[in-house]
Specification:
The protein is α/β, with parallel strands linked by helices. It is 46% helix and 13% strand. The chain has helices at 14-17, 23-40, 58-67, 73-96, 116-126, 159-168, 180-194, 209-215, 218-223, 241-251, and strands spanning 46-50, 107-110, 131-136, 153-156, 170-175, 204-207, 235-238. It has a seven-stranded parallel β-sheet with strand order 4-3-2-1-5-6-7, with helices on both faces. α4 (73-96) packs parallel to α10 (241-251).
């Protein structure tokens, strides 16, 4: 009789782990594996930066437009916000690194992909600090950018677990111009703060009033009575990197 091969142990059976029956195990893995790494590398405080995956820096944008004989002022304005994200992340990271011990108190955390996310990680890299990328598997656009610290580069399948990790360690949020994903994160975060589901001080900077005032009429939400006027105090609007930086460092917890 032919000798039977050993069956896989349950936790080594990839067919099972990728099945619907193992969904709860996969969800738990996306909670515990990042928790393990955050503890290992001493990550306790993050500054989360959201924004479009489709932006590029001003120089690259200008070259692309010239090459294709286009004059798209909106792309150039978006590129300006991209440059601001690099600058702000760089300033925040330089401020977060203790000059005596070299230890980093706060870590820039992005969605891990291109665009404004890459700008955030790039700024941290230029300042000589570590930064986090919470990447998500998507059909298009989303791939880990090259500026994420290798040991803090994550890949998620479940949006809600990724959102948990955005908020759990966050000590501040900065929202740059973006699309559906950015607005989703913005509104969910504001809802958690408004309903006091977050038991911590969490300053929120919305960067780029020209963009956001055209996209969302916050005053109309007050006028129609769907939010209170005091709810607008949850947000600090900014168009200047120095202003955003000062507001954040003066309002963050630790």
């Amino acid at each position: 009789m032919k000798e039977r091969s050993k069956p896989h142990k349950a936790y080594e059976n990839l067919n099972f782990l990728h099945s619907a029956d193992a969904r709860t195990i996969r969800i738990l893995a996306e909670y515990y594996e990042p928790l393990y790494r955050f503890r290992k590398y001493g990550i306790r405080n993050t500054i989360v930066i959201f924004g479009s995956a489709r932006s590029t820096d001003s120089q690259s944008t200008q070259l692309h437009l010239e090459k294709n004989n286009k004059n798209n002022q909106y792309k150039l304005r978006l590129a300006g916000y991209h440059d601001a994200a690099v600058d702000l992340a760089k300033r925040l990271t330089a401020w977060a690194i203790d000059k005596d011990s070299g230890k980093q108190r706060y870590f820039i955390c992005s969605g891990g992909g291109p665009g404004m996310m890459e700008a955030a990680n790039k700024g941290a890299h230029l300042a000589g600090g570590q930064s986090i990328g919470l990447n998500i598997s998507l059909p298009m656009e989303q791939y880990p950018n090259r500026y994420i610290s290798e040991e803090l580069n994550f890949e998620f399948h479940y949006f809600f677990i990724r959102k948990f990790w955005f908020m759990y360690l966050a000590k501040a949020l900065v929202i740059f111009p973006g699309g559906f994903g950015t607005m989703d994160e913005l509104m969910e975060c504001l809802t958690l703060i408004q309903t006091k589901k977050l038991q911590k001080k969490l300053p929120v900077v919305i960067y780029g009033t020209e963009f956001w005032n055209e996209i969302i009429n916050f005053d109309a939400l007050v006028k129609w009575g769907t939010i209170c006027e005091e709810d607008l105090n949850l947000i600090h609007f900014s168009d200047d990197v120095a202003d955003a930086f000062e507001y954040l460092i003066n309002n963050m917890g630790y």
